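Need tokens for this chain, all 154 residues.
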Amino acid sequence: MSAQPTILESRSCLKGLPVSFVIENWVLLSVALMSGGMLLWPAMSSGGGADTLNPNEMVQWMNREKAVVVDICGADEFAAGHVVGAKHVPLDQLEAKLAGAVKNKATPLVLVCASGMRSKRALAVAKKLGFENVRSLSGGMGAWRAANLPVEKT
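Here are the structure tokens for all 154 residues:
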């Protein structure tokens, strides 16, 4: 009569199982990893950080926190359409004119440009000037228009 294997001995037969599973199912595993990456990509590429807002979050911030919107586009882009009530301070003049446009540095501030790229760079300038509560509109005016939110032309 043979002795029954102990718990440790019975697990030894499973040692090769994970490796063989990976080898036999590499296509399934690669598809799972790719789909997971594709799900995470929008959050990572849109700059979905603490300093960005999507259009709906921006509307809530404007209504609840009384955030001031500063459009940092050039004059022609601003005239073509901007968020209703936005103040215009071009990016190249931001350091010199932002403090004059928004007096209270504790005021919530949203920076907006055409695509969201320049406003991300402008965040650093605003923070350097001492503005404490600054965000950027992720996707810029393109995302604002895509969300069918009101645009004002001057």
